[in-house]
Amino acid sequence: MPLRFAAPGTPSLPLHLIASDDLETAFSRLDAGQLAWARAQGFKAAAGTVCVLPGANGIAGVLAGLGSAKERRRERFTLGGIRGKLPAGTYHLDTELTGEALEEQVLGWLLSGYIFDKYAKKSAPEAMLLAPDGVDAARFEAIAAGEVLTRDLINTPANDMGPAELEAAVRELAAAHRAEVSVVTGEALLDENFPMIHAVGRASPRAPRLMDLRWGHAGPTLTLVGKGVCFDTGGLNLKPGASMGLMKKDMGGAATVLGLAKMIMALDLPLQLRVLIPAVENAVGGSAFRPQDILTSRKGLTVEINNTDAEGRLVLADALALADETPADLLISMATLTGAARVAVGPDLAPYFATEPSDAASLAAAGTKVADPVWQLPYWEPYEAMIEPGIADLDNAPSGGMAGAITAALFLRRFVTATPRYMHFDIYGWNPSAKPARPKGGAGQGARAILEALPTLLKL
């Protein structure tokens, strides 16, 4: 299995990880024949380069370049990019790396085994790795499996990943970990007081729904809320074609919290987990909600609709209101919410907002530790007036185009009044180009940082 380590005791070849600024020291450990071969091949340990060492019975080992310290700061998971260049076989690492640096490379190796082959046959890497001493193999395999779930859900096109299919994925995950799931679907959303989820999804023949997964019976409480807009046309404020092309990924928040939930449950963390996913398709039709409509939310706040393409915050608002009725020790929402966030920080960073400065600091430290970069944006109080239209309590799309990620976060925070510790992520959920261990396509962002921070955040 490419997303698992090789079985302990499997015969293996040495894989020498060499930094370019440590090249001569590494060369001094080779025998004369191997040294001559490496020099003849021009191996200089540039990032991602490989030199196969010949031996009496074929391959004696492989030299793999990690590049310079500057290159390693600029690019994560170098070993992930090396894996596909190796001859088939099982390897063990020969490296001076320890701690976080070693763990980053090992995770990169595992994640590089990911392929999305649901619609076209693809070959997985054939090289396998023995888990290095000191690396918790089961933990890293669980983390990789959670990331795989996120990527698969995002990569699946909307014709095969609508609200019903997303519900099926939630139920499958719950069954695997003995979690409980309840779902409110279609017109029942009105009966159960989820009016904005219903309004956004009512124009589609694929019924909107709210999924509620619960796991664990002891320990601190954690609630995750993920935006599950399975496709976003923009509604009556129809997106141009260029902007609609990637909208299968608009359920990336839901996919990411499900990946994180899978990690938490697989690792059997001592907490009580709740996952809420409002799943809709924002379609164009005669029953679609309209610009200038005023919707009344579950919270009782009224919302003037000034753009039907700002629908994600509407479905999240009802789900957050439900979460806030039973306050958790920590509440986190994740969504592919605004283009403004991508303009601000690009596709690599996961911007987040936090009501507690200490939580923000813990998350930032955790993201650095596990090579899952996050970046804090502010709940900037002076912008509160921008989301108040006058005719209703809130405006879902303030005019002017300024501070879009911040005003969206402020909007969501209005629905969290009883829960003191709330964090919101405005992620991209997509790699626009292939990088080591991160193929082009769906991507989890922030989940590993949260997982790493949970012991501090929840005092586990």
From TrEMBL:
List, for all copies, the residue spans of the domain called Cytosol aminopeptidase.
Answer: 307-314
Q: Which CDD domains match?
A: Peptidase_M17 (cd00433)
For this protein, the record's InterPro entries field holds: Leucine_aapep/pepB, Macro_dom-like, Peptidase_M17_C, Peptidase_M17_N_1
The record's family statement is:
Belongs to the peptidase M17 family.
Q: Which Gene3D superfamilies match?
A: Leucine Aminopeptidase, subunit E, domain 1 (3.40.220.10), Zn peptidases (3.40.630.10)
Q: Oxidoreductase among the record's keywords? A: no
Q: Which GO terms describe its biological process?
A: proteolysis
Its GO CC terms are:
cytoplasm
Q: Which Pfam families match?
A: Peptidase_M17, Peptidase_M17_N_1
Biological source species: Celeribacter neptunius
Q: What is this protein called?
A: Leucyl aminopeptidase
Sorted keywords for this record are: Aminopeptidase, Hydrolase, Manganese, Protease
Q: One MF term from GO for this chain?
A: manganese ion binding
Q: What is the lineage of its organism?
A: Bacteria, Pseudomonadati, Pseudomonadota, Alphaproteobacteria, Rhodobacterales
